[in-house]
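Q: Structure tokens for this one, please.
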Amino acid sequence: MTMERYIRAIAGSFVLGSLILSRIHHPYWLFFTAFVGLNLLQSAFTKWCLMESFLKKLGVAK
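A: Here is the predicted structure, written as tokens:
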């Protein structure tokens, strides 16, 4: 799996998970959804992604 596919899968999981948590627990979980979206948006312009840095440090993908 490529780095881009890992990031997409993780971001999608985070968004879906936070949406579920916002319905079950508290609407403040939607701030996490916004955080993920903002990180995706900034990575489109800066070509730097925080999750990519984490995955590289963990040695998940090259």
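A few notes: The longest helix spans residues 3-24. The two ends are 10 Å apart (CA to CA).
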